[in-house]
Amino acid sequence: MAFSPLIRDLIDSLRCLPGVGPRSAQRMAFHLLQRDRAGGERLATLLERAMREIGQCEQCRQPTEEPVCSVCRENGRDPALLCLVENPADVFALEQATDYRGLYFVLMGRLSPLDGIGPEALGLDRLEQRFRDGVVREVILATSPTVEGEATSHYVAEMGREYGVRCSRIAHGVPVGGELEFVDSGTLSHAFAGRRDYG
Amino acid sequence: MTAAATELVPAYVLHRYPYRDTSLIVELLSLSQGRLGVVARGARSPKSLWRGLLEPFQPVLVGWRGRGDLLTLTGLEPAGKAVSLPGVRLASAFYCSELVLRLTRRHDPVPAVFSAFSTVLDQLAGDGPEWSALRLFEKRLLEASGYGVQLEFTADDVSPIRAEQDYRYLDDAGPMPSGTAPGPGVTISGRALRALAAEQLDDERLNPELQRLLGQLLKPHLGDKPLESRGMYKALSRSRG
Q: How many domains does chain B have?
């Protein structure tokens, strides 16, 4: 049995979601059609609005429908401190875990030479503009500890040096509550090299 | 190409990209089988034991199963410490990876490519000069891929290259004494040719002409697309002017 063209299109479109194959797409489509028309309509309106209105924050590149996002607008944040992260989810994680009161810059990716993702794609020209403005005193590099993350950090650090911006990087180390025996060798060697005075 | 590799073989990660939700497709350079494309299932999931191992330039031991173009990674262990490359040298290492990806084919075992890659990574991680490591790698890669580089004799009457003479290197023939061979090619000194032949590069003044020569020789094998890592090199070396 073949589905009508519209249902088939709906199922195909649902498959653009991550982790959704033909089978789950079909289940989703029939769930919305048979049991939750109201929910489906709300989803449709919201999706349409979101796709049309959500852009990037002018300052930190986070996705937002406002010109400047709520984190950048918030009072009491120190504009001299800038934390560099790869994804919007990283901002959320840092906000939850730390009492950091500076601003963020979201790259929405990282430098990846072999895929042709260069500095322009990450809005690093905009970051340079912020360095040039002279407000930022310290940039905290919080890119992921991969080779590409390292390349990204290096690039930003060089740029910071040109404008006299101090650069620091978050530590790489042993997870709290973890046991040394089970930590992978790369992390352990970073942790060992980056040891600190104690007491 | 074997259906199942029981032993783990030494390899380097050349490139990797996300596949599905938690997996990676990894382009490996292995010692015994040359370049391999493998799927590392679940490698990006939070609990994966392979996390942090499938990084470029990290020496690993790999096992796989399957046949055909894309294999399945079944075993992965670190083989020694990951090389740590500072800033600009990281871009050079990406350049070397990209050259290997462009010049070699999958399932074409050439141990010389593996050893050249391993050597250049060690050299880049060390304190020695970057330029000579890269020029030697380019030369060795060309030779290992079967594109011989004529460095010791002239192309016409097969007389030995003299250090004090200038030559014109013709793309498909080799060096000719300067002035005797008009046409496309690169001008290069005998001294530079001899130094490259002997793999003794200690005079940095030779670098520009060697870079031009090797660039010219590599060009036909790189395909139409420009090398992505060149832009990265320029970007990362920005502070040097």
A: 2
Q: Does B215 reside within a domain? A: yes
| Residue ending a domain, choose from B25, B57, B78 | B78
Q: B111-125 and B87-103 helices cross at what angle (nearest 10)?
A: 170
Please give the residue range of the domain that contains residue B28: 9-78
> Which chain A residues are within 8 Å of B232, Cβ to Cβ?
111, 113, 118, 151
B49, B58, B90, B97: best mutation site toward chain A, by most A Cβ within 10 Å? B90
Among the listed residues B151, B148, B149, the one whose alpha carbon sits nearest the alpha carbon of residue B161 = B151
- Cβ of residue A19 closer than 8 Å to a chain B Cβ: yes
- Residues B53 and B157 placed together within one structural domain of the fold: no
Render A68-89 in DSSP notation, one character per residue: S-HHHH-TT-EEEEEEEESSHH
CATH number for B106? 1.20.1440.120
pTM (two decimals): 0.84
Judge if ipTM > 0.85: no
- B105-114, pLDDT tens digit by residue? 898 899 999 9
Q: Are residues B153 and B201 in the same domain?
A: yes
Cβ–Cβ under 8 Å, residues A88 and A64: no
CATH of the domain at B13: 2.40.50.140
Tell me which of B18, B47, B78 is where a domain ends: B78
CA distance A139 to A136: 7
Q: Tens of pLDDT along A149-199? A: 988 998 899 899 999 999 999 988 888 887 888 887 778 888 888 888 987
Cα separation, B56 vs B14, whole angstroms: 6
Q: Do A113 and B56 touch (CB under 8 A)?
A: no
- Closest CB from A116, A151, A162 relative to B90: A151
Query: How many angstroms separate the CA of residue A115 from the nearest CA in chain B?
Result: 7
Among all residues of chain B, which has the CA nearest to that of A185? B81
Dist. CA B16–CA A111, nearest whole Å:
14
In this structure, is residue B67 part of a structural domain?
A: yes
